[in-house]
Amino acid sequence: MKKIGMALWALTFLGSVHALADDGIKIGVINLPEVLQQSPYAAEIRDKILAEFGGREEKLRALQEELQAESEKLTRDSAVMSESARQALQQEIMTKQAEFISLQESFREDTMRRQNEETQALLEIIGYEVEAVAQAEKLDMIIHRDAVPYIADEKLDVTPLVIEKLKKKKK
Description:
The chain is mainly α and 171 residues long. The protein has a single domain, classed as Protein Binding, DinI Protein, Chain A (2-Layer Sandwich), CATH 3.30.910. Helices cover 77% and strands 5% of the residues. Helix 3 runs antiparallel to helix 4 and helix 4 crosses helix 5. The chain is rod-shaped and about 85 Å long. It starts with a helix and ends with a helix.
């Protein structure tokens, strides 16, 4: 039943697009994930986030290694440790694990927030370039590639044009 519904939606959508094309409306298609990936700004965003959060990532890695070393020490030496020393080490490991989990979650949230902020800024730039391509190519509409199940003519794909405009703008 779900497949029938999808097929009917696709036929309706394609019929609408075909009707628009018959009316002389020019349509373009864009693959936004490809534009985001191939944008010259993508590497800049990665570098910016790495520079901003690299120190925290290193601290997390060091804390993780410290936890691993202490856990190995506990496993290796627990038979020869006094009960109080073993309990103290176990307590220290649990405290550091809780701290690590908290720091890791905070790190993940902060990096995702910054990634989203930078991606939104890039999407604005891409939006301007998509509009410029639409005007230059005299297109009435540009739709996302994922919204179109089939494209008969790959010349409708404006993705390379947008990527090229982004590269020129970056220079």
